[in-house]
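Researcher: Here's a chain I'd like modeled. Treat it as a single chain, no partners, no ligands.
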Amino acid sequence: MPVTLAIESPLQDEVRTLIAELNTVLLELSPPEVCYHLTVEEMAEPTVTVWIARDGDVIVGCGALKRHCETTGEVKRMFTRPEWQGQGVGRRILGEIIATAQREGITTLVLETGDRHPAAWAVYEKAGFSRCGPVLDYPDSPYSVFYQKQLSAA
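Model: Modeled as a single isolated chain. Structure tokens:
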């Protein structure tokens, strides 16, 4: 069955489980003080849209767009469960985030990821993101890698 994507509420038990898995993975790779997680409750705020990838009824991945102002959005909570990695799930979610941001007139997308996430870097770079210095209010840290992408108006 093909993987499907849809905007869903993060306030579902199965999404909470997925986010807990994501947090566990991140905390294995980076110290807790440099993990800038959105909680599930923060993901449910009106400024955030969450995409859920499903293989049938099974959640296999997620990603979110957090709007900071009319022109700046942030890619957050990108994750694909290990069994589905390498199948384009993250690329598809990121594509939906970019397309939505463009339709809304967001001109800059930014993100912070860890220094030990080369698979994530590849997804972002293939989607046209470029490395940059610290974005938004993130501190400069050796554990962080920052990206940005300029978008054209829709």
